[in-house]
Design a protein that fits this description.
150 residues; alpha+beta; 2 domains; three-stranded antiparallel sheet; 3 helices; 33% helix
């Protein structure tokens, strides 16, 4: 008899919830479920931490404002295929190294240079990854660190 009351109670409860609200709850549930599944099946897409690199004050160098280590990749690129990249590990509150001298050297070597910065949560490593829209196009992304060999 208690099983009947449980089913009847659930049916009565759902019967009082308007149909648009039920549909909305289903959509929200599916969206949250898809995000959670994405975190477990494709974690490199969730390792991007560009918001961790900020200037704490006027004229101050960019610093790691997050409470964990981040890997920062800065690249000096030309209009052509030349690109010089360096990856540094920044602990919490650590400043990004001054890039003025490195930018000057890249400009002398390649001509016009553009600087790009990409950040990943450690141990993830910033790298060029194929775009989801076009696998021939490389974009900034994060990858798992390579495991040491046997």
């Amino acid at each position: 008899m208690s099983a009947e009351l449980g089913e009847t109670g659930l049916k009565n409860l759902l019967g009082h919830v308007p149909h648009p609200v039920r549909v909305g709850l289903i959509v929200v549930g599916v969206t949250i479920g898809a995000f959670c599944l994405s975190v477990f099946t494709n974690p490199d897409q969730h390792a991007d931490r560009l918001n961790c690199l900020e200037r704490p004050g006027e004229g101050a160098p960019r610093s790691n404002v997050c409470g964990y280590d981040i890997n920062v990749r800065y690249c000096f690129e030309t209009a052509g295929p030349q690109k010089t990249c360096t990856i540094v590990l920044l602990e919490p509150s650590a400043p990004l190294p001054d890039l003025t001298q490195a930018r000057r050297e890249a400009r002398e070597k390649y001509g016009g240079v553009r600087t790009t910065i990409f950040v990943c949560k450690a141990p993830w490593v910033p790298t060029d990854t194929p775009s989801y829209q076009n696998s021939a196009r490389l974009v900034d992304g994060c990858r798992k660190p390579e495991r040491p060999g046997p």
